[in-house]
Amino acid sequence: MSEWKRKIPFQVDIAGVIDIMGSSLYSRYDTPIRELLQNAHDAIMRRRRGDLQFQGKIVVRQDSDAGTLSFTDDGVGLTPEDAENYLGTVGLGITGLIKRGTPPLSQQSGTADNGDLIGQFGVGLFSAFMLADRLVVESRNENAESGVRWEAGPGTEIDLSNIERSQFGTTVTLILKPEYKFLSENPESVETAIRDHADFLPIPIFLNDSDVRVNVIHAAWFDAQQDQESTELAIEEYFDETPLDVIPIRIEKPVSISGALYVSPQRVPGFSDLPTVMVTVRRMVISRKLQGILPVWATFLRGCIELHDCSPTASREDLVRNRAFENVCEVLEQILFEHFEKLADADPQRMESIVNWHRYSLAGAAIENERLRQVLKQSYRFPTSHGLLTIQEILDKSEADPLFEDDVDRVVWYNPDRRQERWINSLFASHSAPCVSTFRSFEESLLAQCLADDFDAGIESDLRLATPTAPNFSAMILGVQDLEDAAPEWIQFLESSQARVLLGSFRADQPVMAFLNERHELAKSFEELKQRGEIPTGFQRLIDTHFADAPTSQNEIILNRNHPMISRALSQKPGTPLSCVVRLIVANALNSAGGTTTKEARQQQQDDLDWIAECLWGRDS
Prior knowledge:
- The protein contains 21 helices and 21 strands.
- The protein is of the alpha+beta class.
- The chain has a 7-stranded mixed sheet with strand order 5-4-3-6-2-1-7, with helices on one face.
C-alpha cells in the first residue's frame, strides 16, 4: 500500500451554522438585533479611542417596501482588508482579536482599556441570517480611500467590491425572510428589542431617524455616587413598582458590581421560586430575569446590576458559571446580609414591615439559613398568648420554671391548631411564658431551628406542644395532678371519640378538658372525603404517602376525678346511663374545641340520648 498525506481545509456549512444558532444557541428570534447593536457599539467605542470628544450614534431603519432592516453606526469602520479577512470567517471577530491583544492594523488607534468592548465570539454577524435571506455590509474606515461592500447569502459565496462612501462607519442591511418581514413594518417590535437588549448602552440609538432616542442610556443606579432618593425614583419609574427598600451597590474589589437591588412589593408565592434580577455586562442586558446570582432566600428582591468581571455565554443570554460568577454570588449575599442586619438595628419598624410583607418567603428560607434566622429573631413576630412577639422576645420570656424543670434553660410552648387558639391562650393568660401560635408548619420548623441555634450556643432549650401529655404541661399550665391513662374499660367505652382518654385531678367545676391534634383532625376529614369518593386517585396517593411518612397522634381528653358527676361515673362500670352522659360530655368538649364528628360518633350520640331518655321516662308502649 502506498502512503499518502495532504492538508485539507475545514469545510463550513453556513446553512448548518445558522440552523444551530436558531435552534440551539439562541432562544429569541430578535437575537440578531442585539448582536448587530453590539457590533455597532464596539465600532463606536474603538473610534472614541482616537478621538476622546467623539460621541457617536446608532440608527436603525425600517424599509417596508424593500423588506429590509438596517443598522448604521458612525464608528471606526472597515477597510477592504478587514471585510475580506474577518467578516466571512465564523469565530474570528475583530473585537475578539482586540481583546486577545492581536488587533488588525486598521483597528489599533488609541490606548484605551479593552473593558469597554462587548463582542467576543465572532458569530454576531452570522446570526443575522436567522432573519435574513441576504446580508449587505457597507463600510468605510477613516484611513481608507474608499468604502467597501460585502454581500452574502446563506451559501459560501461572498461578493466584495469597493464603493463610493463619504461617511465613516458601517451600515448592515438585512434583506428579511418572508416570515420576518414584520420587522421592516412594525416599529414597536424593533423598539421593544432595542430596549430589551440595549437600554443601557452608553451610545444613543435612534429608530427611523427619529429625534428621540430609543434607549435609556443611563439610570441613577449606575451613578458612581448614588443618591438614595434618585435611585428609588428611577427604580419606581423603570420597574413600575414602588420599592419597599432600596439597596445601592457599588464596589470594585474583590469583584466589580454596580447597580441597585430593591425589595419588591409583589408577594412571591411559595418557597420554591428562585430569585431573579436584571444583569448587564458592559451595559448590554444579558438577562432581565437571571437566576442563580442572588441567594436562594432573596426571592423578594429585584433590580439591575452591572457585572463587569463576569463573562456572558456564547448565546449572551446567561453568564458563564465560573469562579468569577461564584465570587459575585458570595459578595452579593454578604452585602445583603449586612444591609438587613444594619436595617434591623437602625430602623426596626421598616425591617418588620418588610418581614411582614414577605414573611412566608423569609420564614421558609430561614429554616435552612442560620444567619437569616438571626436577622428574623429581631423582626419576625408570632401571634402568642401575650400578643405579637418577636422570636427573641419569645425566647426571653420562655425561661424554664426551676420548680418544674431541672434539665433545660428554656421551654417554648406552641399551639399549631387555630381552632384551639382562644382556649389555649386562656390557659396561658396567667403564666409568664407565652404560648406561640404556629398555624403554618414552617413556623414550627423555624422555632425549632432557633432553639437548635440556642443549643449550639450552650443554651438547653425545648420546644413543646401545648397538650396534656407534654412534660409538665398538665401540672404547670393546667394545674392537673396525678395524670394517667384511664382504665381499659373506659378507653373502650369512649373509643367512638377516637381520642386518648386520660384521668386527672383539677378544679371541680370543669368535668372534662379536650385537646385536639391537628394531624388527627386532618386525617379524619380526608377519610370522610375518601369514603364519599370525593378525592381523585392521584391526590389520594399523595395523602396516603404523607400520613404514612408521619403517622398521626390522637386527640386527648382528661376526665376530672374532682368533678362530682365524673367521680361517681368512674366508680361504676361503663354502660350505665350516667356513663352515657359522660360520653356525651366528652363529645361536646371535642366539638367545642373544633373537632370533627364522624358518622359513627354521631350515631353513638343519638343512641346515648335515646338510652338516657328511656331510663328517665320509660319505653314507649
